[in-house]
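Problem: given the chain below (92 residues), write out its structure.
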Amino acid sequence: TMDYFFKTEELEEIIEINQNKAKNVLAQMYTECRKSKRITQEELAKRAGISRTNITRFEGGDYNPSVEMLVKIANAMDMNVNIQLEEIVDGE
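Solution.
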C-alpha cells in the first residue's frame, strides 16, 4: 500500500507539471497570434466578449481557460482551435 501512495504522489506531480507546461505553451501561442495580428488585449476582449482581466491573466499563465474561452478568443482573431493528443515519448 505504501508503494501505491508513492506512485500516486509521483503521478500527481507529473500531471501538474504537464498541465502547467500545456497552459504556458497555449498562453504563449495565443499571445503571439494576437500580437502578430496587431490586436490589443482590450480589442480582443471586446471581440470575444471576455473581460480584459481574464485575457491578461490567461496570457500571463495565471488563468486556466475553458475550451469555450479558447474558442471565443480564437474566433475573435479569425482563427480556429485545433486540439490534438500525442503519445508521451520518454524524456518529454
